[in-house]
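Hey, weird one. I pasted the Citrate-binding protein-like sequence into the form twice and got a warning about non-standard characters only the second time. First submission, copied straight from the form history:
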Amino acid sequence: MMSSSQQYLVFLMLLLFITRCVLLCTTDPTDGFINVPLTEDNFEIQRPYDVPLEERYSYKNGTRRLWVYADDKPHDPNSHTQPRTEIRIHGLDYSSGVWQFEGHAFVPNGTSGATILQIHGASHGATTIILRIYGGDMRYYSGQVMATDLYDKWFRINLIHDVDGGNVTVFLDGAQVFTTGDQGPGDLYFKCGVYAAPENISYYMESRWRDIKIYKK
Ligand SMILES: *[C@@H]1O[C@H](CO)[C@@H](O)[C@H](O)[C@H]1NC(C)=O
Ligand SMILES: *[C@@H]1O[C@H](CO)[C@@H](O)[C@H](O)[C@H]1NC(C)=O
Ligand SMILES: *[C@@H]1O[C@H](CO)[C@@H](O)[C@H](O)[C@H]1NC(C)=O
Ligand SMILES: *[C@@H]1O[C@H](CO)[C@@H](O)[C@H](O)[C@H]1NC(C)=O
């Protein structure tokens, strides 16, 4: 049993801790999530079907570099989609729960009209969210700007999909920059790299990625 003075001391320390925390504690988007271990098998690369992998992708010193040209072929001869070189996170499709993608990204100046991160699948439409770079800004599809001035620098991106809650949230360098409703459950998976938008695309598109991680609750 604690004496009342000991209890008072504990109370004081708790108060001090809470006050400090309100002022100083930073929360991390991954707090409360479990890291899902990845192997190279989880990284499936999609690229223009008629060019060798090493002409659109490299993986050196921990950095994955993906690039594509506006006049490239789609990833599949039967597809009529825009050109892409993308990592499709393979083997971790989800349809419920709360999932999170984390990565450090770099987009060179000049790349424009390129989706660098998306959640594929939805109950309505093909995608839940698309994060596109236009002239150094990051937009939700071609719409709302969530960040500016992203060229030629590394930034950390966290994308959380709460399927049960029906929302998606974007964090850049730990700060929440965007949230919106999702498009309903489906066969869902994360993709990153470069996927040409329907309009206003630069001839050359590139993004680089380090420390890609998947988390879930
Ligand atoms: C390899 O990556 C590290 C950062 O993780 C960087 O400090 C180093 O300069 C890189 N080395 C080369 C040869 O690019
Ligand atoms: C990007 O490149 C253009 C053309 O070279 C230059 O005018 C612009 O200042 C560059 N932007 C950044 C953020 O470096
Ligand atoms: C997403 O939905 C869940 C469930 O309603 C809610 O708890 C959470 O705060 C929502 N997230 C955001 C960022 O709005
Ligand atoms: C493409 O660029 C043109 C000219 O700047 C602009 O009017 C149009 O809205 C842009 N389209 C999209 C989808 O951003």
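That's the output from the first submission. The warning seems to come from a hidden character in my clipboard, not from the data itself. Residues 1-29 form one domain.
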